[in-house]
Amino acid sequence: MSTAAFFDIDGTLFREGLITEIFKKLVTYEIVEPDRWYREVQPEFENWKKRQGDYDAYMMKMMNIFMDAVRGLHKTQMEFIARNIVAQKGERVYVYTRDRIKWHKAQGHKVISISGSPSEFITEFAKKYGFYDFAASEYKINSDSYYTGEVIPMWDTDSKKAAVDRFIGKYNIDLNRSYAYGDTSGDFNMLKMVKHPTTINPTRELIEQVKEDPELAEKLQIVVERKDMIYKLRVDQT
After folding, report:
1. Mind listing the pLDDT tens digit for each residue in 54-90?
2. pTM of the predicted model, to two decimals?
3. Residue-range domains of the chain with CATH
4. Cα dihedral: 130, 154, 37, 85 (round 10)
5. Radius of gyration (C-alpha) of the chain in whole angstroms
6. Residue 123: how many CA atoms within 13 Å on its side-chain side?
7. Is the pLDDT at 20 greater than 90, yes or no?
8. Whose CB has fewer CB within 10 Å in the chain, the N or C terminal residue?
9. What is the distance between the alpha carbons of residues 203 and 208, in angstroms, rounded to a whole number?
10. Is 17:10 a contact under the CB 8 Å cutoff?
11. What is the pLDDT of residue 126?
């Protein structure tokens, strides 16, 4: 049986949240009106910064706008944006996570990304960081390769669990030897399934969920990376 290391991307590898960068590009290319940021997204973001709201609510607001914005776009337009984002900002990653990817690859582990971001973008990250395989949100296209506005999500915890299950069957993975890395409540089941779970700069919502699960709380490692320092904590230290 093989050993795997499952990685989220947004906020776990990529520092700024990939969907945030996608949204900025959509505004820059006038696909999304700037007013939508100020009217719909910025209030959620400001609440989160003031610790009066949660990060997951902010990200879901952006996802909903993104789903509406891509309707009618051609697939090549999104692929162009994806290549630009990864080329321009693909190095903006957490040092800890980047080094863990290198370590797992050196051990011969199957390094797999399971991300809620659109597959067009995770394809580019997979190329850059040498992921063995990946699962991501799939935005549906019609026969002419235009987006319909429908999506098969990969940002929720149940979808990520189903993805892990598929990879187990595909690669004969032993979860008792495997690893997972995430940062939000959407990663909860993925972290719970493996022997060696780690959360990188986790959201409050994820830690609150973990504290309600003694088995996961016992085995989870928390990593906090700030500037050039990396701190490792247990759940009972939070």
Report:
1. 666 666 777 777 787 788 889 998 899 899 999 999 8
2. 0.90
3. 4-237 (3.40.50.1000)
4. 10
5. 18
6. 12
7. no
8. N
9. 9
10. yes
11. 94
